[in-house]
């Protein structure tokens, strides 16, 4: 059985972190499926997903990494063509990746105790975002 | 239902980018499945997958990141043992990762408008590559 | 059909590498399924998964990358709050990512000849770890 849904978010960009854990757990519960996987996918080239301990220190450290790897103020070939100021956003999102797959067992996500689902909007402006949620199981 | 296929490519290496979007969409259409996930997998330790806006600027910026993270001209322990000149290729591929999972709904990939599937061959020579395509759905 | 299992490991941390290939292949064989995907997931925010050629040179090169991206000796906001000395572990694990999805066909993982499954424990102390193995197929 497959259940498809979307999570909608209003975001502000600039690597703003969002915790999707509760929303994803709710979709799994509502599917009534017992075992399977949830695939989360960002239908965007300037946002990405991973997991992290969602506390301000770890989030700040993780965002610093991206400031070092792909700083906003550098020259980007993307910006030379498109002038939208988000060349760094594309590099960051492609590196971190758009998909995350999490197994669930007995109707519950197999996340660790201190592990949450992190959506990062790397774009440089406020946006309305949708994350695809595909639940496959039995 | 599960459909397995392979996409074959002739590649030149050196982080050469390939857009797999059309080939993957065609496999999904041919499967006749309506909803599910496509799992793409590189059966190789010197190539990797992600998504990106497939335009020359963003691709160039993304490749620069890998030149900075794992430059070809550095010392690599892998090369000291194997002398095949692709120590940096292994580091890059392991970081970006071999698998990508994309949901499809109503027979269509849920990619964003400006988002394409990127296969990067990080090796240092021309190769024949296969990418595994596994479609699971209903 | 879905089979759920866990792989248990005793780890020492500090980016210690573990090759999970044989354990995962065994779970696939025992499932008796012919085609599908294995989803591996780290229920932890300080460990991660990818694939690599599991030889000492490539492993050493890959670990050097993380020493450069997120060195243990730097200041981390996570440590200022929690004083557990593993701020760098969180950054590394979130970057590499907790999930890995590998297709299998005819009961065999589609890994390349020189490609193994790598679990990296980035934490700063010995731990008992479990990796979730979810096999879906037919």
SSE pattern of chain A, N- to C-terminal: EEHEEHHHEEEE
The protein's oligomeric status is homotrimer
Class derived from helix and strand content of chain A = alpha+beta
Overall, the morphology of chain A is: elongated
Ranges of chain A with pLDDT <50 over ≥5 residues? Answer: none
Percentage of residues in DSSP E strands of chain A? 35-45%
The chain pair forming the largest interface, with residue counts per chain, is: A-B, 31 and 34 residues
| β-strand number of chain A | 8
Give a short account of the largest sheet of chain A: 5 strands, antiparallel
Biggest sheet strand line-up of chain A: 1-8-3-5-6
Mean pLDDT of chain A: 96
N-end to C-end Cα span of chain A = 6 Å
Radius of gyration of chain A: 16 Å
Proportion of residues in helical segments of chain A: 25-40%
Helix count of chain A equals 4
Structure characterization notes:
The structure is a homotrimer of 138-residue chains. By secondary structure, chain A is an alpha+beta fold. The first copy, chain A, is built from four helices and eight strands, in the order ββαββαααββββ. Chain A has helices spanning 21-31, 56-69, 77-82, 87-96; strands at residues 2-11, 16-19, 36-41, 47-52, 99-105, 108-109, 116-121, 127-137. Chain A has a five-stranded antiparallel sheet with strand order 1-8-3-5-6, with helices on one face. A three-stranded antiparallel sheet of chain A has the order 2-7-4. In chain A, a hairpin with a 2-residue loop joins strand 5 (99-105) and strand 6 (108-109). Chain A is elongated. The model of chain A has no long low-confidence stretch (mean pLDDT 96). Chains in contact: A-B, A-C, B-C. At the B-C interface, helix 3, helix 4 and strand 8 of B face strand 4, helix 2 and strand 5 of C.
């Amino acid at each position: 059985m497959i259940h498809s849904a979307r999570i909608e978010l209003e975001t502000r960009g600039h690597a703003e972190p969002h915790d999707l854990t509760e929303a994803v757990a709710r979709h799994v519960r509502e599917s009534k499926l017992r075992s399977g996987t949830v695939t989360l996918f960002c239908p965007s080239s300037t946002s990405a997903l991973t997991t992290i301990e969602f506390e301000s220190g770890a989030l700040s450290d993780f965002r610093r990494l991206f400031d070092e790897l792909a700083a906003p103020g550098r020259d980007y070939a993307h910006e030379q063509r498109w002038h939208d100021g988000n060349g760094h956003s594309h590099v960051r999102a492609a590196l971190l990746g758009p998909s995350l797959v999490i197994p669930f067992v007995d109707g519950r996500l197999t996340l660790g105790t201190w592990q949450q689902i992190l959506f990062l909007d790397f774009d440089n402006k406020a946006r309305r975002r949708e994350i695809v949620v595909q639940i496959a199981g039995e």
